[in-house]
Automatic annotation (TrEMBL):
<dbReference type="Pfam" id="PF10294">
    <property type="entry name" value="Methyltransf_16"/>
</dbReference>
<dbReference type="GO" id="GO:0008168">
    <property type="term" value="F:methyltransferase activity"/>
</dbReference>
<protein>
    <recommendedName>
        <fullName>Protein N-lysine methyltransferase METTL21A</fullName>
    </recommendedName>
</protein>
<dbReference type="GO" id="GO:0032259">
    <property type="term" value="P:methylation"/>
</dbReference>
<comment type="similarity">
    <text>Belongs to the methyltransferase superfamily. METTL21 family.</text>
</comment>
<keyword id="KW-0963">Cytoplasm</keyword>
<keyword id="KW-0489">Methyltransferase</keyword>
<dbReference type="GO" id="GO:0032991">
    <property type="term" value="C:protein-containing complex"/>
</dbReference>
<dbReference type="InterPro" id="IPR019410">
    <property type="entry name" value="Methyltransf_16"/>
</dbReference>
<keyword id="KW-0949">S-adenosyl-L-methionine</keyword>
<dbReference type="GO" id="GO:0005829">
    <property type="term" value="C:cytosol"/>
</dbReference>
<dbReference type="InterPro" id="IPR029063">
    <property type="entry name" value="SAM-dependent_MTases_sf"/>
</dbReference>
<keyword id="KW-0808">Transferase</keyword>
Length: 160
């Protein structure tokens, strides 16, 4: 896919779990909002504190985000990048995840999602994603069976 310069870019990680992706993005110079559901926040915050040097910790903020719900706590379209690692697995969350991506995106936002495509439901999510965004596979690691997809708002130039 090439090099992505995250310095001084605004990034949000969805469904962060341990926060590894958000921590790395912060270390690479981004201003990162690392999100997950309420039950994961204490562990997530402790990982951020333990793994970021004190001088750059202010660039990483841990916030609660339940997809499709707490959206009013975030500025719509305020992020340069939306990152998600292994967050496509519960079919009952797909509509809320798409609603969240739609809310957080501007025309310039780049979404990067890494996932395994294991079941028919995973293909269903990709179809749903393609219904709202322009989607391309930018990397595939065959040794781990992990795909990385890039998504952006579909170009509106056809509307004119």
């Amino acid at each position: 896919m090439g090099v992505i310069d995250l310095r001084d870019r605004s990034v949000i990680e969805l469904g962060a779990g341990t926060g590894l992706l958000g921590i790395v993005a912060t270390l690479l110079g981004a201003r990162v909002t690392i999100t997950d559901r309420a039950a994961a926040l204490e562990f997530l915050e402790s990982n951020v504190q333990a793994n970021l040097p004190p001088e750059i910790r202010p660039r990483a903020v841990v916030k609660e985000l339940t997809w499709g719900k707490d959206l009013g706590n975030f500025s719509p379209g305020a992020f340069d990048f939306i990152l998600g690692a292994d967050i496509v697995y519960l079919e009952e969350t797909f509509a809320e995840l798409l609603q969240t991506l739609d809310y957080l995106c501007s025309e310039q936002t780049v979404i990067l999602l890494s996932c395994r495509i294991r079941y028919e439901r995973d293909h269903k999510f990709l179809k749903m994603l393609r219904g709202r965004f322009s989607v391309s596979e930018v990397h595939y690691d065959s040794s781990k069976d992990v795909h990385i997809y890039k998504a952006q708002r579909a170009s509106r130039k056809d509307d004119f």
